[in-house]
Amino acid sequence: MVSGEVTTMRTRLGLLALGALLLSACGSMPDRSANTSSATGLGALAATPSGTSTGTARVFVTNPVQSTGIETLVDDNDADSAVPASAYYTVALTNLDGSGRLVGDWANVVGETGDPAYSVTNTFEYTRHDDRFEQVMAYFWVTEAQKYLQSLGFGTGELPAVNKESQDVRVGQYGLDNSFSTSTKDEIRLGKGGVDDAEDGEVIVHEYGHAVHDAQVPGFGASLEAGSIGEAFGDYLAVTVGLSVAQKYGVPLRAPAACVADWDSVSYTSGPVHCLRRVDTNKTVADKVGEVHADGEIWSRALWDIRGALGAYRADRVIVNAQFRFAPDTSFGAAAQATVRTAQDMYGKAAASSVAAAFRARGIPGL
Ligand SMILES: [Ca+2]
Ligand SMILES: [Ca+2]
Ligand SMILES: [Ca+2]
Ligand SMILES: [Ca+2]
Ligand SMILES: [Zn+2]
Hints:
This protein is mainly alpha-helical. The chain has nine helices and eight strands. It is globular and about 60 Å long.
């Protein structure tokens, strides 16, 4: 889970039953009053969708704090006025199924609050106060994350596919993000505590990281260290996908590259620089506290250093490919050894020794 909002989780869970009641009471019928004549509203459902697989959207890349550098931004109860217009970027939505909904090859988005996003022309331009904005963010970032994995060679014939399916994503009131244990559905859930989770691309891709692990090794995360690796990889994937997409669209990086969830975390961190977590801390195994998010910073720093040594492309190919070799309840030591072996197999001795050095610097044994 992303956590950071753990203290409010109990309250949110307590409200679940009430929320379910309220949802059934309104029959999940969207409010039609605002949009009956709009091309993007439900009034247009009778029109024929374009059938094309690409569209246009307005999104944050990766989030408003990272792209504007304004660390003093606040949620202000989801007000449009809280975020400058310059934080919105027009991007392509790809791999849509042509139905006019946010469903496609790599993402299947269900929104539980507000109107479901729908456009016969695949034009999805909303601002943050509109719940459809988060649905669009979820579609865009999950799709971009899968496209990034494919750009590394996964599922293209060169390397095995990784979660190459239409990932279910539920954007709702409550984000219950431990969705990838074997006892629950393969579904990403994004909630609305503080800054809406899906307003931060890094929160979305972090959760996608859990889906990736679960697709690679069913039930992954069955030990404290495996769980920590899961959190660490989610953080690292969020950063690496975010940086790649920002580069593609020419979006500036005005916050520390290693900072995860710069925007979601303004609600629960004191600043002056807001980070849910970072992938460049100096933690070693001596700093373990027995909590997966905190201990994940040990592993994510190693991944960050592997990136520094091999470059993003080679590092990310090694990091993801190695994960096929992890046991569900792996230890730092065993997973590190598997990653070193993968680097050796893919890029040879020098790469393997760089990877080993990155893990050794974290105090991980057996290298
Ligand atoms: Ca919002
Ligand atoms: Ca999946
Ligand atoms: Ca949040
Ligand atoms: Ca960031
Ligand atoms: Zn997580």
